[in-house]
């Protein structure tokens, strides 16, 4: 697949314009997608990493129109660092996900935290940001991160899903900030909604979102089953599990896979199905 152009505004629907940041990687796919909502006045969702080219591209899209808010889905370095400069130059508040200061206990696989992230207003479930002809409603979707929010555009039933549901791969869930129990619950929550389309932080728009979310839930449950079978077969350490579970996957993604396997194990331990043992793990029914 040919990578789409960066810095070029693409109108997805009358109220939504997408601009791709030039930060493609094994963990960001073609890059972070910033979405600009509105026509006469605007909201900017996830301004992406700090960088001259993307900053200039967003200012060109704004074209002097008032910006009501710079909206952040979560505090990863590929989503929020572009916010402070935009906020200062556009006289717009940064709103959305809560700030977070936890030091991670292992290697990050998607992007490290943006430790400078400091919103002017934290949004919770059901809080809104509005402008001329548009309303964004915060939907709490923790799991990928503890503070992750999606945003529903009420007027068109579009959902900006951030990294919770993406158009190219499953989300990395990396403890201690990432939580598989919360992630699964957030997927179940989305199934109960009637959103028409998802615009993710990475990857193409998702036109049959309910089908994809059900598939993600099924995929995670399959991973659970793989882990339990491997434990019963005596494969008890995470790196060895990843080699068996992720055959054919780019080895550069193994750190991400190891973090997600750990998240599954933590979830299974909460449910009394596994426990840590001697530097590894074991299934409770095999103990």
UniProtKB/TrEMBL annotation:
Species this chain originates from: Sphingomonas olei
Please list the residue ranges annotated as the Metallo-beta-lactamase domain.
30-202
List the protein's name: MBL fold metallo-hydrolase
Check the record and name the CDD domains matching this protein. metallo-hydrolase-like_MBL-fold
Query: What SMART domains does UniProt report for this protein, alphabetically?
Result: Lactamase_B (SM00849)
Coiled coil (UniProt feature): none
Q: Which domain of life is it from?
A: Bacteria
Cite a single Pfam family from the UniProt record. WHD_BLACT
């Amino acid at each position: 697949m040919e990578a789409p152009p960066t810095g070029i505004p693409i109108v997805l629907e009358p109220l939504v314009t997408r601009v791709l940041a030039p930060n493609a990687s094994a963990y960001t796919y073609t890059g972070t997608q910033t979405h600009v909502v509105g026509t006469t006045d605007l909201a900017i969702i996830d301004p992406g990493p700090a960088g001259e080219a993307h900053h200039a591209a967003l200012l060109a899209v704004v074209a002097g129109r008032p910006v009501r808010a710079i909206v952040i889905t979560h505090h990863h370095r590929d989503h929020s660092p572009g916010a402070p400069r935009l906020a200062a130059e556009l006289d717009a508040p940064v709103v959305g996900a809560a700030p977070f200061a936890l030091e991670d206990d292992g290697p990050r696989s998607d992007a490290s935290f943006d430790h400078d992230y400091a919103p002017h207003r934290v949004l919770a479930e059901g809080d809104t940001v509005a402008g001329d002809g548009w309303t964004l409603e915060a939907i709490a979707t923790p799991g990928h991160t503890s503070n992750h929010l999606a945003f529903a555009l009420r007027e068109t039933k579009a959902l900006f899903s951030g990294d919770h549901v993406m158009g190219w791969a499953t989300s990395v869930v990396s403890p201690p900030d990432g939580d598989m129990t919360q992630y699964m619950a957030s997927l179940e929550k989305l199934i109960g909604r009637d959103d028409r389309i998802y615009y993710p932080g990475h990857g193409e728009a998702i036109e049959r979102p309910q089908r994809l979310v059900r598939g993600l839930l099924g995929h995670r449950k399959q991973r659970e089953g793989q882990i339990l079978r491997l434990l019963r077969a005596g494969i008890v350490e995470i790196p060895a599990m990843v080699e068996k579970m992720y055959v054919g996957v780019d080895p550069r993604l193994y750190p991400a896979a190891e973090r997600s396997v750990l998240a599954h194990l933590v979830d299974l331990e909460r449910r009394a199905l596994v426990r840590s043992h001697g530097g590894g793990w074991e299934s409770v029914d095999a103990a």
